[in-house]
Amino acid sequence: METQLATRVPAVRTYRSHRARLISMLGPLTSLGGVVWAFAQPYRLTLLHPHHQGFWWLVIEPQLLVVVAGAVFSLLVARPLLVDLEEADGTA
Amino acid sequence: MEPHSEMVHWLFAGGFLLLGLILLSEAIVGEKVWAMRRWRVYLWPSIVFGLGLLMWPVMTFFTNSAIHMVAHGAWAQALMIGGAAELGLVHGKLHDPRWRLALPIGIFVSGIAFLVHEQNPWFFARSAFLHHLIGWTLVGSSGILFARAFRPRSAAFQSAFAFAVVAVAVMLFCDRDLAPIFGHLSPLAGVPHR
Question: Domain boundaries in chain B?
Fold first, then answer.
């Protein structure tokens, strides 16, 4: 099959400096911590067994809070910070 | 309709975890790179101020006793003053470097608030243990911040404080309303519910 549409495969971003690598790993490692905790104590994740659970038990899930904290940090803080760090390292 | 006390601790744990990650990243990249975007320098002082602000509903809705109300109220004020002083310093409204002492004092008051409003001994239950541990961790952290007030560019003090904040977040996530600690649970505490 031939197509004129070409999809660009995004390249995996690699960072040269160890500072950039550390920053890029902080968020994913934090979120991974939440996932590992969810596997270790699945009974604490009430979304997995939502029946007869009250409102707050369904809204506040500690493992998900850890995952969200890591994701928020990655998207809102780490991403622009890495751009600035690369720029600063490039000019240095 | 109020959430359990442990859930409030988890919510604050989420905020403390984000705060710790931000402080750690600032320590890793250094002050110069961190300040390349202006909004970033306001980030963690705003979170400290916001955490202080959120202590007011905790004081209002979780008033188990007078000592709880006083501790939560003092804590709210101390965090807000500490966050506001840092905001004033980074914005250039405050020039006197002694304002840097507001945050260590705020964290010290927070630690004392934790210790004072926990009336039970360490091994009464997990929440009692964690309140003592968090209280002393915050008191110790205030020492780190006090040293940082005199050497504000020290990556070592900044990193040490960031790790302390992450440790407090982990402790807050471990909090349960009624659970044993290292096999200890006072019969006066009640029956663990979950």
Answer: 5-173
